[in-house]
Amino acid sequence: MSGLLIAAPSSGSGKTTVTLGLLRALKNAGLKIAPGKAGPDYIDPAFHTAASGEVCFNFDPWGMRPELLNVMAAGHGGGRHFVVEAMMGLFDGASDGSGSPADLAAQLDLSVVLVIDCARMSHSVAALASGYRDFRKDVRVAGVILNRVGSVRHEAMLRVSLERVGFTIFGALPTDEALKLPARHLGLVQAAEHEALEDFIEHAAARVETHCDVAALAKLARRDEADALEVPVLLPPLGQTIAVARDEAFAFSYPHLLQGWRGQGAELSFFSPLAGEAPNARADAVYLPGGYPELQAGRIADAETFFAGMRDAVKRGALVYGECGGYMVLGEALIDAAGSAHAMLGLLPVTTSFETRKRHLGLRVARPADDSIFQAPLRAHEFHYSSVVQAGKAEPLFRVEDALGADLGPMGMKRGRVAGSYLHLIDLDGDRS
C-alpha cells in the first residue's frame, strides 16, 4: 500500500515547509497527489491545498476510528501520491501516548521520512535518527531530510555520520531565511491571509527540487489502489440542507465531516458572513465552524444581512450549531484583544473574551447531555485562547472527559435548536480496541 509520512523529532523542525515544497514539486511533475495532515489540525491543510491543488484531509489516529482512517486512505490516497504531514514529534500523541503520527504510519502502512533540524548538531544526528528508526518495529522509517544545513562542510559531516549507520538521506536543505511562515496564537497565519503564499510555495518547491531526491520520495508516496471498503457509521448530518459559514472568520471545518454529510444525502451550501451573506433560506440546519472571529469581531457585529438570516433560520426551526469560534458568535458578545465588546447574535446566553488570553488545549471525549442533537459519544479537540466570562441559564450540550478519562464536567450549551461549544467534533467515539 504505502504512502509517505513527513515527520520530525519535534515541532519547529521544518516539516510543513518541506511538505509544501514536495507537494508543489510533485504537482509540477504532473503527478496525482493526495495531501493529508495527521491530527486535528485545521490550519496546515489549507496550505497543503494551495500547494497541491487538491483538498487536504485530516487523518487523526486519536480522534478517528481505525475503520474510518482505512476508508479515507483508500478513497483519498489510493492510486495517488499520498503525502501526509505529521503533527508534533513522530511519537508524540495524547497524554497516554496514543494517537501519535507513528500510530498513523503503522495503521496506514506509511513510509516515514524524518525532517531533522540540523542547525545545532553534526555527528549526533546519527544517534538521533537511529533512535527514531529503531524505537518501534512496526514503524518504517525510510530515511531523513536534513534541514537548515549551514554549509558544504556541515553537510559532509552529517552525511558521513548517517552513512555509518546505514541511513538513507533523501535531501539536505540549506538554511534559508525566506522559508519561514508567519504565525499567530493558534498556529500559522491562515493561507488565505498570506499575500505572498504562491511565491513562498514556489520557492520551497525550487529548494526541494534542487536539494532533495524528489523521484525517490515520489516512489515512497505512491499508494496502490485498494478494494472498496465498507464505510463505517458516520456522524449524522445536522440536517438535510445545511448552510455552512466559510470565510476568514469561519475557516476551520473538517473536510471529512462535510464529505460524510454529503455521503449521507445532505445538501451543503456555503456563505460568508464577512461578505454580507446570509445562510441559505431553505436550510434546515446552519453550521458555524471555528476560525478567527476574535480578529473580525467588528466586521461580524456589522454584518446585518448575516444577523437577519440567522434570526430567520431560528424562527423557521432550523438547527443552528456553532463550534469554537462559531460558538462565540452565537453568544451575546465577544470581547476582543483591546477589551472592546462587540454584540454577537445573542442566540446563546454566553459572553466570551479574548482580552486576557488563556490557552485551552486538549483531546476530548464528548458525551451528549441528551439525544436531541447528538445521539452518541464523540471524539473532539479543543484549542482556543478565549474564555467564557459570563454565562446565563441554558442546558449543557456535552459532558466531557480528557484523553485519560478525567471528568472535565459540562461543556457548551443549548437553547431549543440552537447549540454550541468550544469543541471541534471529529468522529464518533466507537470501539477503539
Characterization of this structure:
It is a single chain. The protein is α/β, with parallel strands linked by helices and 433 residues long. Helix content is 28%, strand content 27%. It is built from twelve helices and 24 strands. A seven-stranded parallel sheet has the order 3-2-4-1-5-6-7, with helices on both faces. It has a six-stranded mixed sheet with strand order 11-10-12-13-23-22, with helices on both faces. The longest helix is centred in the middle third of the chain and has 15 residues, at 197-211.
Short description:
The chain has 433 residues and is α/β, with parallel strands linked by helices.
List the helices and strands and how they pair.
Elements: E1 4-7, H1 15-28, E2 33-38, H2 44-52, E3 57-59, H3 66-77, E4 81-85, H4 101-108, E5 111-117, H5 125-134, E6 140-149, H6 152-164, E7 169-174, E8 183-184, E9 187-188, H7 197-211, H8 214-221, E10 241-245, H9 255-263, E11 267-271, E12 285-288, H10 297-301, H11 304-315, E13 319-323, H12 325-330, E14 333-335, E15 341-343, E16 350-353, E17 360-368, E18 378-384, E19 387-391, E20 398-402, E21 407-411, E22 413-415, E23 418-421, E24 424-428
Parallel strand pairs: 1-4, 1-5, 2-3, 2-4, 5-6, 6-7, 10-11, 10-12, 12-13, 13-23, 14-16
Antiparallel strand pairs: 8-9, 14-15, 16-19, 17-18, 17-20, 18-24, 20-21, 22-23
